[in-house]
Every structure is written in structure tokens, then in C-alpha cells.
Predict the 3D structure of the following.
Amino acid sequence: MVIVGNCMQDYFHVQLSDDKQGRRILELTFAGGVLRDEWVLTDVGITLCSTIKCTIKEETKPALYVFNAVTKERIGIFGGAYLFTDRVSSLKTLISQKSGYPVSIYTLRTWQGTEMYNCNCLSDYKLDLGASLRMDVWDGWKELLKACVTGHKNNVQRYLAGKQEVLRYQERVALYIAAHFGHLELAQWLLNRGVRADEAVGVHPYREWCHETDHPDVGKCAIHAAAEAGQLLVLKAFIAHNVLCLQCQNPVGQTPLKICTLQGHKDCVLYLVMKTWSLVSFPNISLPMNIYIKVKKWLFVAQKHIWKVKKRLVEFKTRVGDTLVVDGFTEPNMTSRGLHRLHHENGGKETDDSGNKSLCVSEKHGTNKVSHDTMRNGKGQKLKLPPIHQTITNCTRSKDTSLGDTFKNTWTAHVPLPPLVNAANGRPQNLTDPHAVIILNSSLKSFSKHSGRTPRENAIYCLGLASEFKEKTWLRQLDVARMLAKKSVCSF
């Protein structure tokens, strides 16, 4: 295919390029599928008088790459040279919109480890086009943020902090991330815990004393994240739980309706318009929604004040003796260290500096012992957990770990599968020749070692490639997949 591509380039006099700004490539398409350079024409069924479509594509490369230390992904930030004249705070706003993280839970560092502050310009750090940055989060938060991104409610509950002020901040962060990714179950659970979608995420309690000079986007709420991402179901859940979300404004004064209009989320705009200009009916009176929201807001402020006076409670604010983090003066606590690493560094303590509950795992005598606060009864005594029994099945396919250990012994116990080798497929059931067994096992191990896939995974991979040729029939796609699989096996 490389030869064909070069011939097309010389015949049509196409000038291709590949530099820091972008690249210009020649793409060959046949039967709806994009042809790859390492393929042979006959492998994909290209014969004489076939038609190949040639397309010139121009791809713009990102100006910066940001490595997410939690998800291990690279986020591309597009823009020209003007991007480097902006401040770091503007870059963090773009990263927050792409990653779904609030700006107050991470910091940016150059690849050499220099921390980047919001008030500085990107040009102060002498970055080039295509440079890579690193996004680090608070120590002990890595497991919690992974659970928030995947929407796993039980893991989020497991990794929440023990300190009350840090716990409330983590719940607001979790609701913000759930709103961005559309995790409705996690969002409903957090709303039932008393987290408000129209409450600003704010800053970490360690930075409470310097919140006035922090990033402006710390005033964003979960409802704004749902509006930016166009998560209609989450928007409906937030507004059904608290109608004040309709008029909640972000730091620049934009309501969720204005945000959805700017982002072009048509379904969200229609829903918000219908709710904003609707009527709220009572037995003796009907009020427009904007009047009802004003009355509701006034009642909420009054009830909150009365409740504080009655309970004699004060807000959780930083006090003398609490941990304080100031940029450039204190030791950074945002290095993306996990709970287990903090546990070892703190000498086996059950909690880290952020108040997170850590997990103590001991592999003595081949058993795992877990120490956790929830494993104690009401009298403070430790609870003895029953042993874990491993389910043993007679299915010969239980050794296949391609679907993960989770599904290994669940569905195979109820659905009996035929053996891999039987009399119907024409293969011998018992290999009596030991040399044949050795050669077969060594060939399979050699193929898996060099290709990085098992033969079954390789077959699925080839079927996926062949399915890109949508204009071909299913049998033709099967022939292409068989040929590609044969070529990949012969190459090893």
C-alpha cells in the first residue's frame, strides 16, 4: 500500500507535509473502509478495475498536550501562537471543560516539574508548540477521582474523606464530575445526601484563606457542568430536585440556558425554555416560574438562617491549627500520590493528610487482611469476616481471561458451553504425540508474545477491521478478516 500511495502522490502531484503545526496526508478508501499502509491489495479484495477513492486531509496538531495523571490520558489543546500569550488560568479553563475536573482540584506542571501559577503567562515558562504538561491532583484523591469518572457509586462512597470539611468539598467535586460525564445514578445519590447542584464547588479547605485570589471558575456549580456538556438527563434531575438551578449563574453571569445556547445543545435549550416560561400552579394561585424562583430563594435564605440559629451551628471554615497551602511557600500537596503510597509513607496510618481512609493490605501467609473503619461494630470491636470461597466450574473456557476475572465464574456456571475440541470439528480430541503438543503450545506462546494478542483476540481484531468495509456483504467481510488473520499469523 505504501507503493500505491507514493504512485498516487506522484501522479496527482500532491504535496504532503508533517510539521509541528499540522500534517497533510493522503487517505485511500475502498468500499467504505480506510486502507492501511501495511496491507496488500489482494488481502482486502481489491481486484482489477476496482475503484479507490483518494482524499487529501489536513490535520491540525494540538498546540499543547496535557497528561492526566489520574486517567493516564493525553488531552490536546488546540490553538496557534496566540495561546501562549494567555494566562495559565485561561488554559486551566479549557482543560476543565475537556477533562470534566473542577479547576480547584488540580495543578499544572511542566514536564521538568515546574509548577505553573494562574497569574503567570504561558510564555513565562518558555513552552514550544507541541509541548507536554502534567496535570496533578491532590494527594490521596486519585482513587476517588477514578471512581467519579467511571460513575461507580460504591467506590466513591468508599474513598470519601473522614474530615467533615474535606468530605463536603469532595461531595461537591463528585457531583460536578458526575454532571459532566452524565452519571445519573451517582448524581441522584449525591443529591439525596444533601449536596446542592446550585452550590459552587469552591476551593479545598487547605486553601480557604486565599480563595479570593484563586481561579474565577471555582464559583462554577454542578448545574453549569451539566449545561456545558449537554447532559439532558442530569439537567432534568437537578431541576426536579431544586428549581433554583434554573437561575443559577456562573462567575461570568451566565445561566444554564445561556450556556446551552452558546454550546449548541438544542435538546437542553428546548427543555430549559419550557421550564423557564412555565407556570407553577397552587390550589388558589398560579405563579410564573421567575416569580416562584424569587420567592423560593427568599424562603431558602430565611430557613437557612433560622436553622443555624436554632441549632447553634457554624459553617465549617478553616481555624487556627488547620493545614494551610500557599502557592510557592508551602510543600505542595498536589503530586497525584495514591492512598496506598501515602499509607506506606505515613508509616501505616489509617488516614492520610486529607482525611481519606486508606486501605491496609497484608499479604502475610498468602491472605489479604483489610483494615477499614466500616469493619467495626457499634461497640468498637473488630468484626471477623467470613472467608472468601472461590467458585470452581468445570467449564474448559474459564482460563480465558480476555473478558476479565469478574465474568469468569459467573455466567459459565449457569450456561454450559461446548468444549473447544469435539468430534464435530474434525480435530483430534487427544493429541497422543508429545512433540505435536509442544510445537502447538510454543507456536501459540510465540504468537501471543510478539503480537500482544491471543489468537482469539486477533480474530476479533481482524473482524473489527473487516467490518469497516461497509459496502461489502458480510461474507466478503468474513473473507477479508480471514485473509488478514492468516497474514498476521504467517508473519510470525
The first strand starts at residue 17 and ends at 18. The mean pLDDT is 76.
